Amino acid sequence: MNFLVYLGLRNYDLPDAQRMLADKSRQLLLNEWEGKRRVHENYNAETGVGDDVRNSDSFYSWGGLLGLIPLMEHGYFFPDAPED
Hints:
This protein is an all-alpha fold. The chain has helices spanning about 1-10, 15-35, 65-75. Helix 2 packs across helix 3.
C-alpha cells in the first residue's frame, strides 16, 4: 500500500509528503530487518510489527517495495524516466 500511495504522491507537488512516506517506509523495513532479518507482507498500522498475526508471511516479496520507495525518493531509480 505504501508503494502505491508513494507513486500517487509523485503525480502531485507534495515533496514533504513524499519524503515523509519514504522515510517512514524505510524505517519500517529496517526495524523488522535489523531486529529479525525478515521482510513481511503486512505490518501492523499502529505498532509497525510485521509478525503480530499468525498468517503473516515472514519473507514476502511485496514487503521489499518498502526499500524501493526511499531509493526512488533519493533519485536512484526512476520507473518513469525516458530511455536513452
